[in-house]
Batch of 4 targets.
Target 1
Amino acid sequence: MPHDGKFEFDSVQDEKSIQAFLAALTEGFGKGRVVLRSESEEIVLCPGALVSFGVKAKRKDGESKMTIKISWKDAKSPIATGERTIQVES
């Protein structure tokens, strides 16, 4: 695994850009390797077989927000799986 590091990126994007990002992220998870890169930063992440996954969404005063959190341990240690599921509809 590459050395420790931190990557942050904030910007305003259109719907097609978000779709492309999520598709690339999905592909990276399928390959077991996600590379995040901007002009001056890069981080390589190698997701484990089991990951912790959370979604928060809210709408207030005409603004909507969705936060997706995905995390895992780099070390190969057993993790209990949960029985909870989530569905996304479009």
Target 2
Amino acid sequence: MAKSKEIRVTINLECINCAENSEKRYRGISRYTTQKNRRNTSMRLELKKFCRYCGGHTIHKEIKK
């Protein structure tokens, strides 16, 4: 039986500064889990979220699972 394509999908967001920045407060990469509507937002999602490793609000981009 084929899996149906759901409209609302769960995605992971990852901080873009954590991978590039070596001068941060703590070691690690900030990740958030959220949902998006596939019909309304077909492109990859980018949100400004708080990164506890960088110590500020940074851009988090959608990553593949």
Target 3
Amino acid sequence: MSKPAGSSGGFSRFRIDFSYDGTDFAGWAKQPTLRTVQGEMLKALTKIFGEDKNDFGMRVAGRTDAGVHALAQVCHFDLTPAQLKRAGRSKITAKRLQTMLTQEIVISNLVEVSHDFDARFSAIGRSYRYLIADRSTKKSPLTSRYVLWVLNDLDTELMQSAADVLVGLHDFGAFCKPREGATTIRELRKLTITRSENQIEVYLEADAFCRNQVRAIVGALIAVGGKKLSIPELATILKGKTRVSAFKVVAPHGLALTSVEYPSDDQLAAQAEKARRLRSPEEISV
């Protein structure tokens, strides 16, 4: 495996592209007493490279909550020269890592990358989908772990009209679980609702999402589609920037991360620096 430009110095960086069924995981982030996706990944890396007190510098594109799935997740990890020597650079492959994991996690690619690449901060876009089955759809027990079942009929045209209100650069404080030192300003680039015979798909694209944002937005759209929340009320909630009880944060099992987008290699470092800067309310156009 050749060494890419920018990988000089005290460590080498690797990118992993992977997917997982989040049903039986307590989310992405490592926790001392719970089974998590990162915990399983770190166990596998430890078997290959030995213990690392800094968790191999691992960082993920999107920290999914308990029960949330990923069809296209990305993380990076770093190796010291000693760790590389122990494993053998040519043997650092997706196939080898996969043998250390259960079938709930599937590795699609593992490649050495530049130090400029940061799985989280270099990303310029992420997309999610949320699957719903209402009274009018055909339900299957084989999809019950991945689709939210609701008892009533949902008006998807009304849901799309509500979705259009949310698209754009906004402070999504009404839809996010606040985190100290973090902003809730996000650019929601696309939000579409599509009905098929078997399900309703809510598809979202944004530069990034804050915690619970997608599941709260879906909960609000379900409330609108079920005629329990009006579109003007939704617009008022968005402008209020404060969490309310007018809709529920839906269950995690219907949610899946579907893609992560990155700029060209020469823009990775600049994007990472930009992403680390907090947005200000002045950026939002009135």
Target 4
Amino acid sequence: MWKTIGVAAVLIAIIYPLTNRTYNSAADAAKGTDESDVRIQPVAKFELAKAAPAAASGPKDGATIYNTVCGACHNTGAAGAPKVDDKAAWAPRVATGKEALYKSALGGKNAMPAKGGAADLSDAEIKATVDYILTKVK
């Protein structure tokens, strides 16, 4: 019996130092700086943030507003909008007069929302844009 205890003690004395090495386990890696954090990061991150308002640089001219807001529909004819180069489509609209066109542009008409969907534009800017379009369609 003492032989068995002696052999067990010797085996423990030999095996314990071999198994008690310091390895970086997943639990230990979380404590320190390790490449595992980098390896398990998602491929991409997506964050929604509110856009900062553009700096107010004064009123915009009709051409700029047309190219940024109105041209999307009036260049292509999307949603039934008359193309700016189609004088025949504009003739009945031009015949109603500027005030009627201003009213349509400010309040919306058919599929076009009020102010073309750019509610931040002033009435004067919308009227300048209508004047710009009229120079193109006449």
